[in-house]
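Table S2 (text version). Query chain:
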Amino acid sequence: MQTTYKRLLQDDILPSKMPDVGLLRSYLQEGCPNGDPICLSFGETWTQAPAELTQEINRPAQEAHGYQLSMYGLPELRTVLKRYIVEDHQVPASAMDARRLEVAVTWSGTRSTMFDLGRYLLARPPAGDTRTPVVLSSGPSWDYTGVYQPLGFGFRYLSLRPENAFRPDPAELDSLVTELERSPRERLALTIINAQHNPTAVNWDPDFVRAAIRRTWAAGGTVLLDDAYYRVHVPDCTPTSSLRILLEELERTPEAKHRWLMVRSLGKQFHANGWGLGALAGDPATVDILVNELRVSHQLMYGGILQEAMARFLASPKSGRFLREQQLAWRDKRACAVRALESRLCYPSERIHPGTCTSYMLFAVPEVYTGIPLGVQAFRDDVFRATGVLLAPAWPWPWETQVPFPIPYVRMFLGPNEELIQTALERMDAAGIRYDMRRRLAA
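Corresponding structure-token output:
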């Protein structure tokens, strides 16, 4: 892996201001004193895309090398993807009969689609309402602020805390929405539902998802379903289908038909983040505006080779077999990490949160780090310097110094193979990192 990191990072400029990049470059320049870096922070393996998928790249049609002609994506992939979404998310037949759903391909990541949704909402404010639009997100969370704050949106956070097993509280959500309804300066514009939640690995309860959709629509807001990790879970977890619930709710609230969007990444489930492929789904009229008016302002139609390959792979039984095998691996790697944290690093079970979905889990920082400023970041940095193992704060970058409320936990990526995760925890043990340690490593 040292070779991989050098290829990605060695340059005469700092390629990214992401804190992890600075730490990795410094470690490489020091000669990797504790062995190859083990990156368990941001969710990337670089090496584990299924061979059945990558082999499809080698046989593209000639026209795949040029610009594509549809802003909805390659028709072959769009058709396969629409069928895949309908079946995988248990979309009600009534929603298809009533044409409440259209699907398009994203080929530059779902982040750009979220940004376009923000532009869509800003161009359509409630008549006469000049209040600042606000995004309601859970916290800790993925970097939704990086998408929406530059557009001028404010933020509110639904707190996910260890005392409640990181589960969202419908009463708190109701209180936040009520506060915005009564505010003379702000209004609820968008609620983000990430039901297979990053970073807490909690599969949100269907009743909470339903309540969040109803409450948002009642307040005049729009719902974004971020289903990046929908099929990333352990075998005995049934992922909550926010899309199915939303379409059921749309039957009783048809006036909200333009106030929702779903995005789903394919890169997360197939270890192909660099392909940028995913889906966006919404009302046909909404999707048409997003792809043919807003998307075209910042990207043209490209990536035909990757879209062709993904279409063939998704249509094949091989994709389903890969996901089933991977779900077994998520279970085994979680169990491996829990065993090592308890037996080697002296963690009490209540300070370990393995979760059931996504490619992450959480565990608490040692208590000696909780009483110092930026204790989570100090623990992450100390661990990396002492072991070459890179973890992430529960509030991932770029939240480094601006978290709305602290969560004294770190996030560990479980994407690498079980042996590498075991090695990482063995290094931490050898460096004296334990939950009951009496002083920080750098002290």
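Notes on Table S2: The radius of gyration is 22 Å. The CA atoms of residues 113 and 421 lie 33 Å apart.
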